[in-house]
Amino acid sequence: MAVISLSFDAIFVLWSYSPKELYGIGISPGSIAQAFAFKGCLSIVIAFGIFPILQRRLGALALYNVLTPFWVISFTLPFIMNILVKNHTGWVEQGEMKKMWGLMVPLMFTYTMGDLAWA
Fold this sequence. Notes:
Blueprint (H helix, E strand, L loop, with lengths): L1 H16 L11 H30 L1 H8 L2 H18 L4 E2 L2 E2 L3 H16 L3
Helix pairs in contact: 2-3, 2-5, 4-5
């Protein structure tokens, strides 16, 4: 699971910065940093506030089984985001995420939940 998480970290940056013609979404380094900052804040809140409660109630194995499928969504959403950037305007403008935040927030949420599967 750690390999998947670390791989997604690297792939996410490359995919985010790559132009839409190369199947990325073409956002600026500043926007990538904003996405990671959001993920960091979300991770702290979930890891320290929600995760311990769920682990006590569900148990480690059940929680692992619930959280692991979030990786499927995390690896699927980038393709949907690329299709939207390629075919519609307004999602990313001059490297800044506009409407794309509407999908970046769920991506960062599923990414965080997938990370917690091996926590």
